[in-house]
């Protein structure tokens, strides 16, 4: 990812292209191939000489989405547990669980079901 004068020069040379093409040309592409627009625009502003406060408010660069261990019941009544949490627990697609409800403590538990052995 280009910064400073190199970023400004490259962006200027690509100024007849779309914003996405300019950002890509300056190297602002994530591992999935997605254009990192916010990082690109921040770098442009800083290259122009403006000092920006840290976006995280803690003096370090943003690390993207972070698991917050929070969720909410959706309008349709579903309760979603996202990929970050299942990955953290080492759960694999296709695994099955029995849902246990503990009404007094309002705790929901997952008990793994024993995997069925295929007949040989």
Structure, explained:
This protein is an alpha+beta fold. The protein folds into two domains: 4-47, no CATH class; 66-115, Pemi-like Protein 1, Chain: D (Ribbon). Helices cover 28% and strands 10% of the residues. It is built from four helices and two strands, in the order H-H-H-H-E-E. A two-stranded antiparallel sheet has the order 1-2. It is elongated and about 60 Å long. The N and C termini lie far apart (55 Å). The relative contact order is 0.08.
In summary, what is this structure?
This protein has 120 residues and is of the alpha+beta class. It folds into 2 domains: 44 residues, no CATH class; 50 residues, Pemi-like Protein 1, Chain: D.
Set down the secondary structure blueprint.
Layout: H1 4-13, H2 19-25, H3 37-47, H4 83-88, E1 97-102, E2 107-112
Antiparallel strand pairs: 1-2
Helix pairs in contact: 1-3
